Each structure stands twice: as C-alpha cells, then as structure tokens.
Amino acid sequence: MSNTNALSARDRIASLVDENSFVEIGATITKRSTDFNMQEKSVPADGVITGYGLVSGTPAYIYSQDASSLNGSIGEMHAKKIAHVYELAVKTGVPVIGLIDCAGMRLQESTDALAGFGQIYKMKAKASGIVPQISAVFGNCGGGVAVMTAMSDFTFMEAQNGKLFVSSPNTLEGNYTDKLDTASADFQKAASNVDVILEGETEVLNAIRELVSILPENNNDTAGSDECMDDLNRLVPDFAAEAADAALALEDMSDNNFFLELKAGYAKEMVTGFVCFDGMTVGAIANRTAVFDENGKEVEKFDGRLTTAGCEKAADFVKKCDAFNIPVLTLTNVEGYATSVEEETTIATAAAKLTAAFVEADVPKVNLIVGKAYGSAYITMNSKHIGADMVFALPTAQIGMMDANVAAKIMYADDKDVNLNEKASEFAAQSGTEAAAARGYIDSVIEPEAARKQVLYAFEMLFTKSEYPIGKKHGTI
C-alpha cells in the first residue's frame, strides 16, 4: 500500500482538476464476486474513482485508483469502470488521465480480473492516436498495470513513493531490492518507461496540468498554449554557445523560455520535449553533445552519434507529435552512428524507424543544423531529403559525407605523394553551408542569435500545411 502521507485518490483528483469541476460517474459500482469470502469485504467504488472535469480549462476524463480499497487492485468491475471512461473519452474527443496506485490484478477474481485487464488494454489501444493518454504513478504500478501505463502517451512518476515494474526486483535472477531497486524512480530515470519524474505529488499533478494546457484535446484539434507574451523578434545571443546542450538552446528559443523535456535521463544524447512559438506547441528533437550545469560548465559529454536508444526515443516522440498534429522542430548536430558491437546488433533497425517516422509525419517540419550533419545519420535527422519543409543552418554548420580530413585519407589511402591537407580543403568546400544552399538542400543560412525568430516565422507560415498521403493501411518499419 502507498505511504500514508500520500494524498488520497480523491485528493489527487481535487488537486488535478479546476476547482469544483469534477463530476464522478459510477460511484456506486462495486465488486460482484463472492469467491474467497469477498462478500464480506467492502470495496467502495471497486477501488477506483472515475469521472470527468476540467484540467487547466480542458475537459478530461479521469480515473484515480484507491489504494485504501483492496490496495487498489484491478478486478472485473474496477476494469469496466476504466474501460467505460475510455469509451466516453473517444466518443467526446477529450484526454484521459489515469492516477495509478495499484497492487495489480485482484487475485480473488482470477479470470474475471484477467478479462478486465484485456478490456482496458483493448480500449487503450483503440484510443491511441485519437485522444492523449496520460498516466501518473503515485504508488505501486506492477505487472500488467505497468504494461497498461506504458500504453499511455505520457507517463509521470512521483519519485518517493512511485514504484514501476513488470517483475518485482526480488524476482529477478541475482537481484534483490537492497542491491538494485529496479522499481524505483532512480532506476526508471535512465529507462524508457517514464517521461517525467518529480518529487512530490503536488508537483506531479501541476506538471500534468501544464502538459494538458499545451496538448490538443484530440487528433482533430490543434495544440497551443496561452497567448504569447514573449517578443516574436527576440534574439537569442547565447544560442551558439548553448547549441551543444540542446535542452538549453531549446529553452532559450521558446516562448518565455518554456521547455518541457521528456525522458530527460534516458538516451541523453537525444533531447525530446515540447517548446512553444507564438503560443503554438511544437515538438522538439535534438542531438546533444554536452550537458552544461547552471554555471555553464560541461559536466557530461557525448560524441554526436545516433544510438539505438536515442533513435527509438526520438521516433516514438515524432509519431506522437504527428498523431496529434503537433509540428516538429529538429536541431541537428550528428556525425554518424554509435560504433560498438552491441550497437551494431540494433542501430540499423532503430535508425530506420526514426527515418520512417520523419518521412511519414505530415505535420509542419523544420530543421535547424547547428553543427555537424554528416552522412546518412544526417539524412535521418529530418533532412530536406526525407521531407523537412524548411531547413536552416548556422554559418558554422558542416554538411557532407564525413569529416574532410578523414575523407581525404580514405580517398587517397593508396597515394603516398598526394597532399592530404589540400585534398581535405577541397572536400571541405563541398561540406559547407554554401555548397548545400546552392543545391537547395538548405533554405537559408541564419545567424545563431536569430534562431528563435526564423524558426518561429517558418512555423507561422507552415501552420496551414496540408498533405494527403498515399492511401495505405500502415507502414511496416
């Protein structure tokens, strides 16, 4: 059961929704099972409170599991209540928010509980890509409930009491909780299961409110924040210095320095999250080569290469943005693929998925090349060649096959008399922004301090973009 200091299921809802806006549905529903003396147990609302309300002015359906009622375990009627919420959300086109605090399947109800899980899975899969699904883990979230949570578009986790796991840490071979608590927030920070981890339930609920405020209600809506109070022509003089740490660069570019980073501790070399330009929500994907602390000191370094984890993280985010008509911005600074035996087993497939995600996305797509853009890894990063609508580059950007010195050594490996420096210079001339612009591969070379306004204006012009893709059921990549 959750920590007694945690908010109750009803308190969580009250903290999440706008004041006095929540309407409960199915309040009198409870279990019907009498096996294992269940008729003697009181299970109010069958362990889950369901209903609807306003979250930052946006209508949403909400369910909140009650750990004080049979540990919030999911039985037949508990599942039916959640599935019904999803059914209503799809019909009305509004988000679903699940507040998770659950011991898992209700063992006393056996196959009925299993059927209930299946019903939830089915409704979540049907709702995917139609309405945003948000889950927040406040207590236990194990086994099938972890799978249920992973089917959401965005997952939050409370750092102190949240426990997320498919298999309990003690059941993993050679492991036990004191050795490595794989269910803890500390472990999940570096995993792909959670988008945002915060300490304190109120902080988590406030972050959900912030996310809902910038998301569309459904896949036919457009995303946006409040009216922009920032200067549309604001310069970003530190952009060139920040470009290596894309999280800082994106924050500097965005309206009022808003940046909601997702999966911040996972695949740190690839940054994903939401920014805003003139009140328009934009999904950002960026290569990162360094992490700077609050004093601008480099505390972590990456080699500017696509990794399997980074590609999968980005591809998943691009597909979510495209599903909900959210424009996409990329900051490109990549020189190739990660080189290791382990990566070699997976990187091709992962890069293919990211490439396909960008190609298939028909939302407005803008790419800003801030550093290196080498080889097929550059092509994958939302290049003009695979469908970017507008491509900008900083004057110092390098666009081409590879580093000029390396290229010269490869091309003239058998020629001992050649001047490699001279040949490298010749190759470099083909790798600059001028050569790429002359061929139409980039649309404009911009100064770094103008990055915000140039990107903002591009998205303003692309706002009404409309594409009619070739009819097909789905891709297989």
TrEMBL record:
CoA carboxyltransferase C-terminal domain span: 231-461
Keyword flag Transferase: yes
Domain of life according to the entry: Bacteria
Keywords: Transferase
InterPro entries registered for this protein in UniProt: AccD/PCCB (IPR051047), AcCoA_carboxyl_beta (IPR034733), ClpP/crotonase-like_dom_sf (IPR029045), COA_CT_C (IPR011763), COA_CT_N (IPR011762)
Annotated Gene3D superfamilies: 2-enoyl-CoA Hydratase, Chain A, domain 1 (3.90.226.10)
Span of domain CoA carboxyltransferase N-terminal: 1-227
Name recorded for this polypeptide: Carboxyl transferase
Organism name: Jutongia hominis
